[in-house]
Amino acid sequence: MVASPVRAHEVVPAIADMTRTGSALTFSIDANLEGFLADIDQSEVSNTDDAPQADRYDALRGLGASELEAAFREYWPRMANRIDVSSDGDRLPLALDGVTAAPVGDIELPRTGTFVFIADLPGGTDSVSVGWDRSLGALVLRQQGVDEPFDAFLQGGQTSDAIALQGGNARGAMETFQAYIPTGFDHIVPLGLDHILFVLGLFFLSARLGPLFWQVSAFTLAHTITLALAALGHVSVPASIVEPLIALSIAWVAIENLFSRGLSPWRPIIIFGFGLLHGLGFASVLAEFGLPEGQFVPALIGFNIGVELGQLGVIAVAFLCVFKARKVSRRGERRVGAAILYLLGVVAVLALLIPISTLAPGWTADLSPVLATVAVLLALCAVAVNSGRRESYSDVVARPASVLIAVVAIYWTIERVFL
Predict the structure, then answer these.
(1) What does the alpha-carbon distance between residue 87 and residue 412 come to, in Å, rounded to a whole number?
(2) Is 63 part of a structural domain of the chain?
(3) Which residues, in sequence order, are bridge partners of residue 47?
(4) Is the pLDDT of residue 8 over 50?
């Protein structure tokens, strides 16, 4: 159930640049064309491999650039019906102006194509709204060529606010700050299983506040530095290098837990170095949809605070899970009732997958590894409180959990380098 966060066919937001040219609007959209052509509901899946149309997607992924472009031109009438550009409540006709697909390349990786369409504006039009069908997934919409341009992150099915064609729709600093906090949080929970396991690796060295404070502080400072530098364009390291190193950092922290009894003088320094790597990983998320030029700092701070809230949430859940086990361990007691409650917790956590898969199937792939991680932790705690031995938390929970984290991280390292 602990799926790799590196998804060969990951669904990513489309990016649309809107520019007024005379009496028309030109939209240039960078997107994964195969996902549209395969009719995958991109609001329901985070990976095309999880979609019923996965075989169709893979066949399209193998098409040459000219073949894919021809297929998209033929598909355009259906695509146009899923995009709503409106003025004063009237839907504007859309005309395809061009489509460009990238070469086939590595078929195990998604490729981005670009299509351009034009919407003629009625006389006197001073604002428009843009709607994006739910099945198309998320859209980053950016106005170009005006002062204080509009920008928004639209989930599938949303329609933008009215966009003044002369500009002046830029969000304020506070609005931008608030908008980017959920994006940062989502990158940790539920989308960042690798970052979750890293934070748990810090937690399992010692659940006491002091060691946690120094480790988390070093990690936060470091990833804030590289996140800012990467977002500003001063640092750029290929994902093929960063992602395996992030996996190795998780393995290192987990393995060190097995040989350390507490916080060593060099541990915060090592965590700081690993935090620099993770900051580059966070920056890759922002690269998918960019930061608004006019509100760069509020957006960056909001995203970073969202990341920190996600990390603190992981630590809070872990602390609540192990609280009773640590207390029983210190006393060397055996608590059968607590063990039963822990096992009921395992059942309850795993049972959450049933309503999630029914009501929000698109979340299943993302939440399953997170819920499985919580279930494993609760199961280890059930064994610990039933052992009746001192130090049962360390021997039955913290160390075995660190071993599991190390095994997953080593697998990710091999996968990211060789598979």
Answers:
(1) 49
(2) yes
(3) 10
(4) no
Distance CA 283, CA 230 (A): 6
β-pairing, 14-21 with 139-144? parallel
Question: φ, ψ for residue 30 (rounded to 5)?
Answer: -95, 125
Same domain flag for 271 and 388:
yes
> pLDDT per residue over 222-244, tens digit each?
999 998 898 888 888 888 899 89
- Counting beta carbons within 10 angstroms of the beta carbon of residue 136, is it exposed (0 to 12), middle (13 to 18) or buried (19 or more)? buried
φ/ψ region of 137 (left if φ > 0, alpha if ψ in -120 to 50, else beta) reads left
Q: Is 325 exposed, middle or buried (0-12, 13-18, 19+ CB in 10 A)?
A: buried
Tokens of 193: 């299983």
* Domain that includes residue 240, residue range: 177-418
Neighbours of 26 (CB within 10 A): 17
pLDDT bracket for residue 418 (50, 70, 90): confident
With respect to residue 235, please indicate whether it lies within any of the assigned structural domains: yes
Backbone angles phi, psi at 394, to 5 degrees: -65, -45
Top pLDDT among 227 and 46 is at: 227
Report how far residue 70's alpha carbon sits from residue 78's, in angstroms, rounded to the nearest whole number.
14
Report pLDDT digits (tens) over 270-285.
999 999 999 998 887 7
Residue 214 φ/ψ, nearest 5 degrees:
-70, -40
Amino acid identity at 76 = W
Q: Give, in order, the Cα–Cα distances in Å from 77 to each of 26, 83, 130, 235.
A: 17, 10, 17, 42
Residue 186 lies in a domain: yes
Domain boundary among 138, 170, 202: 170
Tokens linked to 258:
């097995």
Cβ atoms of 293 and 148 within 8 Å: the answer is no
Q: How far apart are the C-alpha atoms of 175 and 170, rounded to whole Å? A: 10
Length of the chain: 419
Specify whether the CB–CB gap between 37 and 118 falls below 8 A: no
For the beta carbon of residue 139, count every other beta carbon within 10 angstroms: 24
